[in-house]
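Example is below:
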Amino acid sequence: MIGWARLVIALTCVILATLVLVPIQIIAMWTGWFSENFARSLWHGVNIKALGFRIHVVGEMTPQRPLLIASNHISWTDIEVMASLFDMTFIAKSDIDKWPVIGKLFRLQRPIYVERERRRKTGQQASEIAQRMAGDQPIVLFPEGTTGDGNMILPFKTSLFGAAALSIGSGIRETVHIQPVAVVYTRVQGVPMGRLHRPLAAWIGDSELLPHLSALLRGGGIDVELHFGQPIEFSDRTSRKEAARQVETQVRAMMQTALRDPL
């Protein structure tokens, strides 16, 4: 009964926040009278509270720009965690735009959609990323290409790291900064999850979204750590494969540290 009561209260909060904040953000987008990020970050913050997440930040985002953030990926909630704290642009799979309701709401995040299965579009997609990197807003990339189970990270793909090279080649900047970030779900109700229970927070493969969302809202009490690593500089002399390897090594090390000794 407590779980279902949490579900009702959480959904009520999310719905009310959506009805109030989304129109404010749309007005900001259309008019430019004020920053749209205020309503957007507040909306994500309400979602985080509704989910019962507690966020612990280790390190800090570098002030260097342009900035490409490369993070491991465990669930759709990774975006909620980061967007509740920072103004970011996310690179996401194009099929998210087709999801009922959620796809329309996610569009307000101004994401960059990619179609990973259509290789001939990779150059075009990387060009869009490069153009968006010309601004001051960090771009978030999930280079695993899919979600993991929270116990380990998958090998980083190098293709979309080409956005850094394109930014340099287009003359936008001489150097692009890539910062590794590890998202780690560590505790549930204050107790370390352990290897068998970490997938509670993971949304893997073709799992149904609504049952996963319902379980999170009914359960709550999850601690998530956001670790910022040491940025690396990417120039016209940098290898994409080497950059991906360095970033993956840092993300894996930060994740293992958080799993071994959670805050």
The chain has one domain: 55-260. Residues 55-260 form one domain. The two ends are 30 Å apart (CA to CA).
